[in-house]
Write a structure and sequence with these properties.
270 residues; alpha+beta; Jelly Rolls; six-stranded antiparallel beta sheet; four-stranded antiparallel beta sheet; 4 helices; 14 strands; 18% helix; binds 2-oxoglutaric acid
């Protein structure tokens, strides 16, 4: 299948924009150079064991509710506008400090999604570029992947192809049923687009940062340990969204200088 345009009413500019920041406040210049050259930074420390265990307990309660309603461990998608606990994570100053060094002083979070692989689960996340799924332009989303549980190769850590973000949009196919893909697209032969795959092995409470053009995916969880991560998607105000995706935003730092994004305050009715 050829590359399709997820955003017919707005022509998308899909290429990597290197970060230019000579005076980072939290990341080191070497980490920013690594992001530009490889498309990611991993791992970074954020939450203590005590802090992340509170966020884990919060997720456990959300998931109990979702499972009781017939959902599954991937159903908690886009809940940042209705869930105080997720709102608190995306507005955490330590996370904003990291993201600010890549995207600037004005930050918008437009999406969140828990990817929770249960012990022994057969589902995978097939190789993909986030930007191919999203009606956004230009391709400047940085994803924070926060480890809610420890992530290792055995329990299906997210794995990336370094340098693949430098190829612009890469052709993909619709995933087959046999793949058991959590999502819907598959890039064939990812190894052609960068260096050897790197698994993001992390301790709970650590996070990674990746470009929306970086090829990544994850294998089934062959262990008896759950692997849950929360993705949080951040953009600078210049990024525009189609399909009303601008309605789901939280301005997490600074202001929306474009006036495009609709800010959702912390929900009070949880
Ligand atoms: O958590 C995973 O296994 C995949 C996450 C992912 O695909 C993403 O962050 O876009």
């Amino acid at each position: 299948m050829p590359i399709t345009d997820a955003m017919p009413e707005l022509k998308r500019e899909l290429k990597f924009f290197p970060v230019e920041n000579d005076n980072p406040s939290t990341l080191t210049p070497e980490q920013i150079q690594h992001f530009n050259e490889n498309g990611y930074i991993c791992p970074l420390d954020v939450f203590t064991d005590d802090e992340i265990s509170i966020h884990r307990e919060y997720f456990n309660q959300l998931m109990d509710k979702v499972l009781a309603e017939g959902g599954n461990s991937y159903s908690i998608n886009g809940w940042h506008t209705r869930s105080g606990g997720i709102h608190d994570l995306v507005t955490d100053e330590r996370i904003s400090d990291y993201v600010q060094d890549l995207l600037g002083v004005d930050l918008i979070c437009w999406g969140t999604h828990y990817f929770c692989k249960l012990p022994g689960e057969e589902k995978q996340v097939s190789w993909h570029q986030d930007a191919s799924y999203w009606p956004l332009s230009p391709s400047k989303t940085v994803t924070v992947w926060l480890a809610i549980d420890d992530a290792s190769v055995e329990n299906g850590a997210m794995t990336v192809i370094p340098k693949s973000h430098l190829h612009g949009q890469i052709a993909f196919e619709r995933s087959t049923a046999e793949e058991k893909n959590v999502l819907g697209q598959t890039v064939i032969s990812p190894e052609e687009y960068g260096s050897a795959p790197v698994p993001f092995e992390m301790k709970a409470g650590q996070l990674s940062l990746h470009s929306d053009l970086l090829l990544h995916g994850s294998e089934p969880n062959t262990s008896d340990r759950r692997r849950c991560g929360l993705t949080m998607r951040f953009v600078p105000p210049e990024v525009k969204a189609a399909n009303n995706w601008n309605q789901r935003a939280i301005i997490t730092r600074g202001e929306d200088t474009s006036g495009h994004w609709v800010h959702n305050p912390r929900p009070t009715n949880e």
